[in-house]
Amino acid sequence: MDGLVEDDATTEGSKTMTLVEANISMSLDGFVTGPNLDRYPGLGEGGDILHAWIDEDRSMDLAIGEERQIAGAVITSRKVYDETEGWDAEDGFYRLPVFVVTHRPHDVVVKGETTFTFVTGGVKHAVEQAIGVAGDRRVHIMGGAGIIRQALAAGLVDELFLHVAPVILNGGTRLFDHLGGPIRLERAEVIESRHATHLRYRVLN
Q1: What is the pLDDT of residues 35-53, one digit of tens each?
Q2: How far apart are CA 75 and CA 55, in angstroms?
Q3: CA distance 76 to 15
Q4: CB–CB of 144/77 below 8 Å?
Q5: pLDDT above 90: residue 199
Q6: Is 139:1 a contact under the CB 8 Å cutoff?
Q7: DSSP output for 126-194
Q8: Helices 123-134 and 145-153: angle between axes, nearest 10 degrees
Q9: Whole-angstrom distance, CA of residue 126 vs CA of residue 143
Q10: What is the tally of structural domains in the chain?
């Protein structure tokens, strides 16, 4: 597989701006889970195939750039946090600060070098907090779909990185519903792999 975009931030004059990247796996017909979530919690019926590429070489480097420290902070939803039990690992999520968007207040959770901060002020507030700690690295919005839709609709996303699996699910959780209007994109990168086509777009709106 080819290398990724090497820049982690953009420069405007003398000001360095942290890039906010929405990063998620989806089917060819635009679903980030399969159908029947009530009977198949998490990724839905047949949804596991969306993440088959994660077992490929350098998969996490594609997702968050762990080896090259591309990501400086992560944003996710309370649903994803609960379903993964905070990634149920001693070090949490790759030793990164994680901001969990939620309506339910919760104390900060620390797992190893990972800090989970629960943000009740909405996606914009979570992005502001994540930018504050990411420095010159990217803020990685990993979903779920609702969090990415809110961030896109609010104009908070600089880049969209989609891992498109070669499958048509015909149902499930759509990624791009209810965005409130067109969002213009510019193709920045295409990476082919066995289990997905990885598409990076710059958001122009």
Answers
A1: 999 999 889 999 999 999 9
A2: 22
A3: 27
A4: yes
A5: yes
A6: no
A7: HHHHHHHHHTTSEEEE---HHHHHHHHHTT--SEEEEEEES---SSS-BSSS--SS---EEEEEEEE-S
A8: 90
A9: 13
A10: 1
Mean pLDDT of the chain, nearest integer: 87
Domain that holds residue 22: 10-30+53-167+177-203
* CATH (domain of 162): 3.40.430.10
Q: Indicate the SS3 state at residue 125.
A: helix
40-46 long-range contacts (CB < 8 A, ≥24 apart) are: 41/83, 42/83, 44/169, 44/172, 44/173, 46/167, 46/169
Model pLDDT for residues 65-90, shown as the tens digit of each residue: 665 668 899 999 999 999 888 777 77
198 falls within a domain: yes
The four Cα atoms 77, 79, 83, 88 give a dihedral, to 10 degrees, of: 40
Pull the structure tokens for residue 141.
């919005």
For residue 167, what are the contacts with CB-CB under 8 A and spacing of at least 6? 27, 28, 46, 49, 50
Whether residue 185 lies inside any domain: the answer is yes
Q: Is the pLDDT of residue 121 over 70?
A: yes
Residue given tokens 């498109």 in the structure block:
164
